[in-house]
Amino acid sequence: MKTVKYAAIGGTIAAIVLGASGYSIAQSPSASASKSSKADITYRATLNDFTFPLERYRLSDADQRKVNNAVDALTARCLQGFAISYSPNPRSDIADTHSRIYGVTDEAQAKSFGYRSPAAVQKVTPQAAVEEPQHAAVRTGAVRTYNNKAVPLGGCVGEAGRQVYRGQHTSLRGLADGLIFQASDQAQRDDRVRKVFADWSGCMKDKGFSYKTPIDAMNGLAADRGAAGKGEKSVAVADVQCKKQNNVIGVWSSIEAGYQNKAISAHRPDLKMVQEDLQSLLANAERALAAGKSAR
After folding, report:
1. Contacts of 137 (CB under 8 A, 6+ apart)
2. Dihedrals φ, ψ of 173, to 5°?
3. How far, in Å, CA of 73 to CA of 68, rounded?
4. SS3 state at 145
5. Which of 254, 219, 229, 196 is nearest to 103 (CA)?
6. I want to staple 46 with a disulfide (CB 3.0 to 4.6 A). Which of 66, 105, 196, 203 is the partner?
7. pTM of the prediction?
8. Where is average pLDDT lowest: 82-86, 117-121, 211-215, 217-221?
């Protein structure tokens, strides 16, 4: 089961995963976002100590790394059977995006990095290993045989994926991500969130910036690669200050959590199977990694 962490604003990546999964979620709840989802509003300046209800139905960053490493290890083992030595190219590290679901919330980071992730700005990308074309063909399944030996369907990486992901309910792939996207959409159209966005917008206007929502401020400013410019940093600092002044994070997260709890109640049996799938997936990954260590 492929899972991903949130994009900068909850749900952007989740929407893509849902579309690829084929899992269908009734649209009627999100089409009529209202105050029907109960939420206790508290003050929060950041999301550092807050966990959304649906997060327990997704892989943590550490667990996703474990699954990725298991697929890489099994791929390398399969290629060894073809006398091919394989060193996986460095993966883009899975950054902890939890704290930035609603954009930047740390004023010191905003001053230094604008809307950009400090890890992304400071990271040096390792040099990728050069792979022979014929070896890549065996890895990906572009050929059916290699040196008179049958190549697995989808290549060694396909075979590795089947081993790690075996036993999963494919019809439930993307369910949690889809529900997160739906709750995010409902929260952003909820009157209480719209009200706090309007308060935030007024605060930003007083500081000389014209944005309707925190999403509008972030979108586009962090699109360019490299370090943030002075203008972006100024907007980001004002954004953080206005969020804190108006409890944007507290209201927004409380309302979204309420919609997530409602989704959990509506999909409890399926989500229970999702949790079982995650446990099975991690067990498969751990066995693959353990077997690799014992074979050395």
Report:
1. 143, 146, 155
2. -60, 130
3. 9
4. strand
5. 219
6. 105
7. 0.81
8. 117-121
